[in-house]
Amino acid sequence: MGDNGTCGNKPPWIELFLHVRSSFARFSGQPVPDECLRRVLELARLVPTESYFQPWRWILIRSHAGKRVVESATQVGAPLSSAPVVLICLADTGAWKTAPQQVQELVAKKTLSAQSGQEILRRIREQYASSPELTQRAALAHAFIAVHQILIAAANCDLSAYWVSAFDEQKIKAHFHIPDHFLVAALIGIGYAEKTVSPLPELPLQSHIYEETFGEAYESRDRD
Ligand SMILES: Cc1cc2nc3c(=O)[nH]c(=O)nc-3n(C[C@H](O)[C@H](O)[C@H](O)COP(=O)(O)O)c2cc1C
Predict the structure, then answer these.
(1) Residues 37-79: pLDDT tens digits?
(2) Ligand 1, closest atom to CA 161?
């Protein structure tokens, strides 16, 4: 919302989201400058996180051999080996166990009050110790936001990023020595698109959004 209560008209960042959606079938051979890659990775640290979990971890693959392994674990439209950089995004299902340490450090530094720290620790134990399902859901939710942040950050550097979620997880875990308590959340190819095509049109808003209960049509309350 703008200051005057309007939603604004085409703010500059909309261009980023349009670039995020650009479709392409292949990366060009142009390398990704280190400075751009660093910037993209830096921005991915800024995503919101519950109780200091920060469960995302990245494996950066630049070697041809590594990219070939990743590619062989997928069936992807844009071949990942054509990307100068491939990121493996991991979600740590054990992050809730290490978060207390970070909370205690923040309390010690007085960034967080002792009372807030206690409250966060109590909630973490109560919610996560007894529910592996919730633990996985939270770890993946964090990882997916981080992946999307990578897509936006890449678009900001005029790079294209290709998100892949269909892959042989065990093959990737075994080859890259990934510990059991991590899930492979996504693979992302990053580089310059060889040629982009117009993305498919989005579905109309009404087909995605229900009001009050499942299936009930959403109506905008704005009057013309
Ligand atoms: C969450 C997510 C998962 C995806 N998984 C795959 C995948 O496993 N294989 C693939 O070829 N493309 C996958 N894609 C599609 C590409 O990353 C890319 O977004 C798409 O080709 C761009 O075209 P579009 O925006 O017109 O759909 C995925 C996209 C998203 C957002």
Answers:
(1) 999 999 999 999 888 889 999 999 999 999 999 999 998 877 8
(2) 17
**Cα distances (Å, whole numbers) of residue 33 to 84, 85, 109, 152, 154:** 10, 11, 37, 17, 12
Which residue type sits at 100? Answer: P
Q: Domains, the chain, ranges and CATH?
A: 14-198 (3.40.109.10)
Of 9, 99, 118, give the one whose Cα is nearest residue 55. 99
Q: What is the pLDDT confidence band of residue 15, given thresholds at 50, 70 and 90?
A: confident
- Give, for ligand 1, the residue of 162, 190, 200 to mutate: max count of ligand atoms closer than 8 Å to Cβ: 162
Residue 66 three-state SS:
helix
Q: Which atom of ligand 1 is nearest to the CA of 163?
A: 17
Rg (CA), the chain: 20
Cα 138-144-147 angle, rounded to 5 deg: 145
Q: Which amino acid is at 109?
A: K
| pLDDT (tens digit per residue) in 161-199 | 999 999 999 999 999 999 999 999 999 999 999 887 777
- The Cα–Cα gap between 138 and 145 comes to 11
Task: Kindly give the number of the ligand 1 atom that is closest to the alpha carbon of 199.
Answer: 26
- Mutating to test ligand 1, I would choose from 76, 160, 165, 190 the residue with most ligand atoms within 8 A of its C-beta, which is 165
pTM value surpassing 0.70: yes
Structure-block tokens of residue 23: 């479709």
Please give the Cα distance from 3 to 19 (Å, whole number): 27
